[in-house]
Structure formats: structure tokens, C-alpha cells
Please model this.
Amino acid sequence: MEIRSFTDYLRSLDDADLSELFAARPDLVSPVPPDLASLAVRASSSHSIARAVDSLTEFEFQILEACVALNEEFTLKNLISITHKDAAIAVPRLITLGLIYPTDKGLRLPTSVSQLLINEPAGLGPASLAKLKLTELNEAPEAANRVLAQLIWGPPRGSVGDIKNPGPGIAWLLDRKFLVPLDQRTVIMPREVGIFLRGGKVHKSYESTAPAVTGTKRVEKSVNMAAAANVATVLGWVEELLHFWAQEPADALRSGGLGVRDLKLISSHIGIDENCAAFIAELAYLAGLLTIDGDDRILPSNNFDIWLTQSAETRWSALAANWLTTSRVSGLVGRGEAKSVAALGPELDRVNAASTRKLVITLLNEQPNLAPDLASFTRAIKWIAPSKRNPGIQEELIAWTLREAEWLGFTGQGASAKYGRAFMTGTDEIGIDTDLPKPVDHILIQSDNTAIAPGPLEHDIARDLSAVADVESRGGATVYRFSEASIRRGLDHGKSGEEIRSFLVKTSKTPMPQPLEYLIADVAKKHGKLRVGNTASFIRCEDTSLIAQIISDKRLEVLSLRKIAPEVLICDLDAADAMNVLRSAGYLPAAEASNGALITGHRSHRAKAKSKPPRVIGEIDQPTESTLAAAVRSIRAGEKSSHKQSKIRDSAANALGSLPRTTANETMDLLAIFVEKQQALSIGYADNNGAVSHRIVDPIKISAGALVARDHATGEMQSFRIPRITGVAPL
Amino acid sequence: MTDGPLIVQSDKTLLLDIDHPGSVECRRAIAPFAELERSPEHIHTYRLTNLGLWNARAAGHDAEQVIDTLIKFSRYAVPHALLVDIAETMSRYGRLRLEADPVHGLILITKDSAVLEEVIRAKKIAPLLGVRIDKETVAVHPSQRGAIKQSLLRLGWPAEDFAGYVDGQAHEIALVQKDWKIRPYQELAAEGFWHGGSGVVVLPCGAGKTIVGAAAMAHAKATTLILVTNTVAARQWRDELLKRTTLNEDEIGEYSGAKKEIRPVTIATYQVMTKKKNGVYAHLDLFDTHDWGLIIYDEVHLLPAPIFRFTADIQSRRRLGLTATLVREDGMEGEVFSLIGPKRFDVPWKEIESQGYIAPAECVEVRVNLTEAERMLYATAEPEERYRYCSTTTTKRKVVEALVERHAADQVLVIGQYISQLDELSEVLGVPLIKGDTPVKERERLFALFRTGEIKCLVVSKVANFSIDLPDATIAIQVSGAFGSRQEEAQRLGRILRPKSDGRGAIFYSVVSRDTVDQDFAQNRQRFLAEQGYSYRIIDADDVFQGKI
Model:
């Protein structure tokens, strides 16, 4: 079969080839296209091509650029001559990805690749229309050489004062067509000139293998120890943050997310910088440990209670998994720009965040015991994945990922550590639980009213202790301080002074200092002397016998009265209702103005709502073998049926001599072919009212969902919206 | 993970488990760079501060040593970020050096020209500098040696001062050790200071700071200016110097409100130095009148601001600061560091106590129940009057009487804040009172009588907080104070810490009114004293009356 188009090429592929294509570009089969024509359309769409291009290494991308520069059908030999001998290695991969394809005459690019992707590949201008005597360039005058030197590495355009009155150098070049006028003030250097001046190559240099990562060598043992410290620290930070917000929920901004002031507050509370605080908040958010409730308060969700009971390893794995897959980039918070991006806010999604993160961790894991320096590491990552979609933040993203990997304990002392490696291989046991210090079940109370837990405290003890003491310092150990306020808080929690005392005596390894016993007794003695409560209304009467009568009156039970003083009753109903009830029972109450402030007690806040972790832009999962096979089968089936249908349609159309009709995919496919051939064609086009007319057009290009073409009827350029093209047919 | 005695916290505190067998070694290893914050019975807390790390650098320790020490003794893995931070902080010290250049005079020199560029561009620094000599050197106006050190410290680039000192006018001074001997730590302190050039020696009250001063003078063998807190302290310095050194009465002058003598060794009070006449400090010239070879600042933590300002101008003279604590309630630790010098010697209170150089002490808080009437009065008092009211109640007086009676055989000091209360106590107890307006002669007479044991009990106001040597006082009873100030507690406790001839321990009573702000302040006191490692207990006034102590 003659291969004329990309679709033809796809038709020529066997099942194994198709499978390989789908494996390399999983977005093509999600969902599975109905037939090969649709597949070709999808594979030529700008999104899909952008994804495919993103998966190229720098070298492969350079080769692709060179392919674009070659413009027409080309052979591997052509390609190597203007690039590097290792292009022979890159080409098969580009073919697998469907970014170039072989035809009978040589290799070609699907039109959309050159059109959508690269206007001026590698900074080269368009191909010259005239025949050029390139050797003349060697004798170019000095003035012309200066101009050429400006344009040689692109961009190939330059502005001149007036094209009609150019300087001597430009004039010389224009005369020989080494520069071509683009408009009144701009000249452009043709591709051939550029390649010639670049010494026959498209790029300055080629690196066909990944550049080496350099850095500081570390000792494995200390790397792992440092990572263990990082793991323990990050878990502590998350817990501390959530405890903090449990006491004092932060208010979300109207535009969503965490305000700068609240961020500062948590960063100073935990004792970390604001970048790290934003990171920790995002981690908790992703893991569903905190939520933004209906009243725009940021507070821990009920998942947090479950989380607290989990082992360190489970907790860490949850954080690590979320971090790896999220598209949210906490590094953007407070990046020192005019407009600040809020943590937990809606503006943190970046499309290549997850892939960059995975790449960074993978590359780190490939360099055991090496703490890479940022420059060489960034260079290597950029070689592996020269991001075309978000080039602006790529470098920062790498730096942030390294920073976050250290915070999270994927690395220790900057080098990849065993927990991160184990996690990436998906083993059941990462080893965190065995390496982290064992929880301790005792504290040491000292006479300066502090208690020290010489290691991570068991959850129950930590919870009870933090009810009666304030945390003063954290780390490997925790220092708690008892104060009047903290003991009072314990009493507010419903513990008695004696309970607090016996809890401390039981938990402490050291004898209870006498001043602390005094402190507890003092506070307990004073606590609760004043009573505060809520009530809706009160009933007051100086006649105590009437009060006695009311409280024993069965008809008034609905009021649930309580006597708080000989002359005062309180009541659950509000004053108006209470008065109605009293009146109906035959009493003669009068309203009395009152004002009472409500005081709510100490409470640890939780949202009732289910936590809604933030939205994540997912990367498409790598399909499994069976999915791939299924996809191929399904396309083959679709192909058969659509082939049959279009045949039926064709014969119907021929019989009627009516307007051409093709399916949307066929339309795209055909248009692509015609655009490439620059050959006139006939289309059916629906106008605003739905009336379909027959047009003969010279196609020029496809852009933004429209066919730009010259209409033979009017002789003018017009853009035809593709959805309105009812069909395409050759003339 | 090792099983070390040290736990490194993420807030840069270090917890030292003193029951651990390795704790002594660890304490020695971390003492040079970590400040001891609290030393209660089980776990001591040290803190890593920038000043502390720079002090360590000044003493010749490098970051690697510090980090190795932490890792070696740490029980758990030390967060890497903290280690990086330590290395970075320490590397900032000494990046800039002040040196004396034979051609250009005082210069600021560095090997890291970027740092020099940074500081030269700082607004506060530029006016202090002279011409730029080359990429790594810039001249400094010699008069601004102190100011530039202050400013550089604030910028976070503390300069090391190698510009040297003037010798001052020579004057022969030597220690005379006939019936006493200099203690090993005192000698170490004096040597540490001398080798460092200038700096601060931190010793607990009662550990013999005067002798460190005298030993430093014997090193310097030059005319010396000694700055002390008040006249009584000045006289005590004079007496000590007469007793401990070759100096005679004619060689020591007193420069105070009463006398204005300038001799080879001159002892001046802060008060006279900072006295203003027509809006100018009339006596600051004293610094210039003589070619002093050494200037000693007693009780550095009380150094008033004008003296700092003047100290900035005399950076070419050797300076020795003596203090019991580097903590300044005004937070001017940085000024002490940059103007007087880094810490040169430090030894914790408890260690000296265990060597028997200071007496062990026990702190007892006596809780007094107010009568109903007193409580009512307290409840209705104006907030600013409350403390005064509750700390001067009649019930307290009775407790003091009972305590004094109990300790009739001991030397007792009753210390208070409010003069009216002290007047009353003095009258009731029938003992003399020393307060601000007691003439110096009379004070000295009473102190002398107290030392000889002719007077068993004295009532003193806060004038006695500082630098008064009362070797045989074993009991202090505190009835009111400056709202539980840590400094005051340390000073008052210091009064009774001189070792007793019979080796008895001292008792420090604080009489406190229950359920009042007095009790809240007592909590600060308890925290401070317990942090210093003293045993602290609380008893009820009834126990005192019934003789159960």
C-alpha cells in the first residue's frame, strides 16, 4: 500500500506497532478512538503532540527540530549530515512516538507536528524559494558578516530602518537572497543560510547521552540517619500544624486559600520558614487531614483522628504518595512576586509538577549517596525532559522538589535515602517504623515545672499530657511546661486535680516535685468557683414560695426549669415562649430586659463535613498490556465498520451528485492531506442559517479549529470553521 | 541511632540527660558553644544561639567540632538543616577581621570580598569607614572601632578584633597569696581572659569574681579602672585588693559621689559615671584622664547604656567584664558581646558548689494565708497597689518574726523592697535596718558588726542586692521584691552562698501571700531557682508557727 498520509502510515502498522505507540503515548487510548482515522486525528492534535514532545529528551527534541528544518521527505542520512551520528538512535524512538513516520520516499513528519509545534525550528527561518549560492557567503563583506552574526543562532528575523534604503551589508545580503524582506521593516534569513553558517548543522552542539550529575559524596549511614530525622520531623510538623488549627482554625481568604498572616503565624508557631509552612499545610490538605469548611475556616478533618493512631510508616507513605502525584506546587506560595499565591488556594496547579517530581526522585535514586549540586542536577533533568509547556518554572520546580524531598525525608543530607527508594519500588515495608525511635511511655517531671518526654511519646499519653501542659520545645524529645493556665485547661477538659496528679505520678519516672503538687492543688481549688452557663431566659420572683410553686408545677415541665438561687429559676425556652407557657398556666409574668454574653468553653474543632482534598490534575496512567491489546482490538473493529460506512455514503453521494459528506475524522484527515499537498478541494460548508453550500477552495493551513483557505468563488482568504464543514472531496 | 545523653531539639535547644553515664563528658564538650539555660534535677537544657556559637568561634572552636560533638552525643538523628544552620552561623564569625596596619592604621580586612562589599554598602557602616585600600581591605576610622563592631554584629557579620591593645601605663601589681590560695577556676578564668584579650568571665555569685579581677590585674601589670555598681561595692573591692595584692592604700583611689580620687587603680561607680551635669556626662572623662591598661566592669549585666556608648570609644584598651549571668533583662547581650568582648570563661553554679567553693542552698517558699479582712482589702485595691499591698501584710510580719526566732543562732538577712515594711520589721525585730539613705559609714559599720557576729540579724533593702560580701549569712528571708526579677533572685541568693566555716547549707526563705499576685511572682522565682538546680519546696505559714520545717 502506498503511504501518502499519517493515517495511511497508521493503517500500515501491525498490532505490535500500535501497541507500542499506545504505550508510548497513553493519552491516545484514553478513551479508545473508534477507528484509525480518529486515531490519526487525535495523534495529530496539539495537546497530544505536546505530551509526546514533552516525553522527549533534549537530544531527541533537537533531532525532531532538525527533521522539521528538513521540511520535506528526508532520509536518515540527510538527517545525520545536519545533526549528529547518534540521530540514528533517536529516529526509531521518534517513529515509535508517531512524531515522524516512514513513507515510500523517506521519513516525514505529520503536518501538524511542524505546524503546531515549531515555527522557527532551532531558530532557523523558512526555506528559501530561490536557488542560493551559499559559497558566496564566505566572501561576504565585513558589514554583511556583522548582520549574519546577529541572526545566526536565531531568531532569524531582524529589523531594518527602511527596506528600500538598507545599509551596505544588508543590501549585499538582500541582493543575493541571503536575506529576504518580510515586510517594510523586517528581514528574515532563509533556513539554508542559517544551516550553512552553523557549519552545516542545525544546533550548536549535541549531547546524545544524559549529562552526568555531580555533587558531594555522602556516607550511606549518615544519609539514612538524616533522612530518618527528616521523616520524624515532617510528621511532627504536620501533627503540630493540625493541632494548632484545631485550637485556632485559620480563616480562608475570600479568593480561597491561606492568608499571609496565618501562614506567618503557623511558621512562627512551628518554627519553620514560610515556604516550609506552606509545604506542610499543602501536605496535610492533600492527605485530606484538613479541610476548608462551609464557614471558610481551615481546620483538621476527622481523618486527622484516624491519622494520629496510625504508624509512622503509614502516615509518611500517605504524605509521600500524595506529594508525588499532586499537580499542586507549594513552592509557588510567596515566590516574591507582586501577586502572591496562597497556600491551599486554587492557583497552585502546574501541569508538569508531578512528572517533574517523579523525574527528580528517580534521578536522585539513580545516584546513591550523592548529594547533587543544583546546577548539574538541573542540567541533567532538563536534558531528560526539556519542558516545552512550562519552561518558566521548570528550574524552580526542580529546586523546590529537591528542597521538599529533603523536608519529607526522601533524601537525607541531600542524597537519596533508603525510605524514599523503598517507597518508589512499592515494597510493603519501608523501614520507617523500625528506624524511628520507639515511642516512650514515660516522662521525667522536674521541679522547674517541666516534664520531658525523652522520645516520641505514646499517642494516649501525649494526648493526655498536652491537655494539662504546654509544649515548649520539640524534636527528638518533647518538653512540656506546666503552668496555671495549662492545669486549668486540664480541669476544663473535665479532669479533677486528683486525676491530673495521679496521671502524672503514674507516667513520670521521677518523683513528683512538691511545688507542682501545690500548683495543681491551687488551681484545682480555684477552678470552678465561678460557674458560667447558657440559658435562654430566667424567672425571678422575690416571693420564694411562688418560686417553689412554679418549679413543682407539672404543667410547666416543658420549660425544664432549674433553680439556681432561692429567687431565680432559669429556663430553656426563650423569654417570649416562657411567658406564654406561664400565662397559659395561670401565672402573671412580666418581661424583664436582660443581656447575657455567651462564653463557649475550650474546644478542639473538627469539621462535620467530609474532607475534600484538593483537585489534582492527573497524569495519564501507563496502560497495562491487556488494556493496550484491548485498545488495538477495538480500533481494528471500528476501522472495519467505518470503512464500510464511508463506502456506502460515497456511493450514495455519487448517485445523488450532491455535496460531499465525510465524517468529522475523515474531514480532518483529508484536510490535513490537502493542506500538505496544497491542492484545491471541494467542501460543503454550512452557513449561519444551516444552509449548506458547495465551495471550491485552496487550502492554506489549519489553525484554531478552522481551515484557512482561498475561496475560488470570491478569490479571498477565508477561514472555514471545521465543525461546519460537512464534507470534503477532491476535485 | 546511638544511646547518647543528648537530645537535639529542632528549636535549637539541647537536652542533656544528667543521669546518663556519658553526661559529664558531654557537658564538657557542649559547654563551649551552648548556653546553659536551665539545670534542674534530671535534664539540663542548653541553647544554641548565634552569640553562643560566635563565642565558641572566638574561643577557637570550629563548626566541624561543634557538629561532631552534637552527632557523637546525640541520642536521635540530628536534623540536617540544624547542622547546616550551625555551620553557616559559625562561618560568619571572623569572615571580617579588624587589624592594625602599619601604614593605614585600623583596617577591616576579609578574604571574602563579597562580604566586605555587602557590609560596605550597609547604611550604618559606611560612615565609619575610611578609604578603600584594595578589594579585600578598607580603612576604618580608629575612633569607630567599637561602633563598627556593634554594627557588624547587628548585620550578622561579627568581626574578630585583632587590632591589639595599648599597654597602658605600667604599674606593678601582683597577687599576695599568704593565708589564701587562688582557686583553680579563678586562675583559669583570668588566663582565659588574658589570652582572649578582652571579654567576659561568667561566675556565679559568691564564686570570687573580685579575685578573678585581681588576677587579671596581676597579668596586666598596668593602671586599672574598675567600674562597680555602688559605693559599698567600691569599698569592698578596695578592701579585697588590699588583702589579695601588693597594692597599698595610696595606690587605690575611689571615684564616687563622695570622693573623686584618681590613682593608678581607680574604682568608680556606675552612678557617678552616668551622672549628668547640665545635660552632659561630666565624669565620663575619667576614661581618658589616665592611660589605663585594663578596665574592669563589675556586674556587666547591669552596665548602663551611657557606659556602653563610652566603651565603644575605648576599644583599644583591654576590657574585662565580670558577671553572674549574661542574661540582660533589657536584651542587650549583643552589646556586651561586641563592646566588651565574647565570653571567655563560664562554669555552672552547681559545679562550683559541688567543689565546695560555694555553700549549698535550699529554697523555701512560705505560703501565708491572708485574713478575711486582708483579702477583702486586697480584692478592692487598685491594680498597681496590689503587689505592694499583698507583699506587706501584717501576717507576713508574724511569719518573719517566727522564722527569725527559729534561726536565732544563725546570721539572718531580711530582705525587702518596701521601706515602710522594712522600717516596721526592723522595729518589731529590734534589729538595725540598712536602706538607701543609710550613710555609707554607718552601712560599713553595721556590715562589719554582722560579719563579726555581734549582730545576728539585719534588715536590708535592695541596696544590699549587689556586691556586698557577707560571708557568714546563712539565712535570707525575702519579704518582697522587684516582681520576681530573675536578676534580683540571683543576687539575693548570692548573698548567702559564701561557703560557711562549718560547711552548713544556706536557706533562702521567700514569704508569699497565698492567692495573690505575690504567689504568681513566686512562681517565676520557683521556676528560676529550680532551673538553676536548687531544691525548692513550699510550706505553709502554720508549719512555721508550729515549728515543723
In short: Chain B has a mean pLDDT of 84. Chain B touches chain A at residues 1, 7-11, 13, 15, 17, 38, 40-43, 45, 71, 74-81, 365, 367, 515, 519-520, 523, 526-527, 530-531, 535-538 (CB under 8 Å).
